[in-house]
Amino acid sequence: MSEHQYPGAGQQFAWQPPQQPTATQPTTPQPVAPPVYPGYGGLPSPTIPLQERPEPRRGGRLRIGLAGLVAGALIGGGAGAGVTALIDEPAAGGGTSASTQSVTIENPERATTATAAAAKAAPSVVTVYVSSGAGAGSGSGVVLTADGYVLTNNHVVAGDGGSTGTVQVRTADGTLYDAEVVGTDPAFDLAVLRLADAQDLVAAVFADSDEVQVGDIAVAIGAPLGLSNTVTDGIISATGRAVATGSTQDDATVLDAIQTDAAINPGNSGGALVDGAGEVIGINTAIATVASGVPGGQSQSGNIGVGFAIPGNSAQRIAQEIIQTGSATRALLGVRASTATDDGNREVGTGAEVVSVEPGSAAEAAGLREGDVVSAVGERPVTTSTELTAAIRSQAPGNTVELTVRRGSGTRTVEVTLGTTS
């Protein structure tokens, strides 16, 4: 089957609300309780020490398709229930920093920033093919090391029940490699592959994703719909965007994402989002799509200019841990929360209300208790439980954060040293 014929390019073949990729039926990004991951697939539900209470679904037309996330996650743990639904799609992946590559630009008088960025980064972006008895699909990935480690989305390689089929990877120069899954982290929707007998690959260079600003140039590189080496450009639309993806509350994933209007479609999942210098700032993972107007329908539109990427700094940390130990850790607050709403309008969130506190957790040690409403993490406002999950998820285990908490009629600040969970 030719690459462009892979039905669920970039999607996970076992993903359910979105259709599974099959040889005869193309798949669309997974809906995240509205976000959609470009390379969609069903994410196994991660276990989060802190779970959010499922929030009632609101009637919305926007869905996040996987490219791959599910809304709702335990605060500081794996994916969980109770997150606002959006549609995300799998997007691009990332890699570890490497020495600067020489870039040759033909017709420099007509070259643009995107031209130079693509010339530098494209050799480090690969197409990932996955097949099993359930079907076949493709996504994207980013080369981390010259000897064959590649970063992609978990939903690109995870099959039904978390199993993985046969994985192959084609590099930008057309070489096809057999690959094995080194490890995955469903909560971050990341997976690391190792290519057999690979050498002299072009490793991606990572920029500091904390320095990304709204309005910066953004270039997405991957294999949307199986079309390898596809480049699209746009800008950074937002940073620190709390995005919940997935098809059900049971397979929810919450990301602290970078939002971009660079075109991302199914198959872009696991690919690279790079800056104007061609350095990776994020791993494309999900896209928002417009849901079908048919009641109960699951069909979605393609790119509408709202895509999401996992920040490069988080992706690198997780990838390095997986390479070293086979798994990754996450920061843990240790509470379950639901969205507190305005008395006059239940659609307006006013914070994350603590539903329960885990015994022995960081939250208990800091004195948090049931009924407290967290309205900020550091200087970052929190209006929903999903935003609290994303803010905690963006931290590394052991970090100390300051929470702004409403208790009764008063407001206080609380310092919490975050725990860890795998």
Automatic annotation (TrEMBL):
Biological process per Gene Ontology, one example term: proteolysis
Composition bias, Low complexity: 7-27
Key words of the record: Hydrolase, Protease
Residue ranges of every copy of the PDZ domain listed in the record: 322-409
One Pfam family here: Trypsin_2
Residue spans of biased composition, Pro residues class: 28-37
GO MF annotation, one: serine-type endopeptidase activity
SMART domains to which the protein is assigned, alphabetical: PDZ
Keyword Nuclease set for record: no
Region (Disordered): 1-57
CDD domains: cpPDZ_Deg_HtrA-like
Transmembrane segments annotated in the record for this chain: none
Domain of life: Bacteria
SUPFAM superfamilies recorded: PDZ domain-like (SSF50156), Trypsin-like serine proteases (SSF50494)
PANTHER family, A to Z: PEPTIDASE S12, PROTEASE DO-LIKE 8, CHLOROPLASTIC
Full protein name: Peptidase S1 and S6 chymotrypsin/Hap
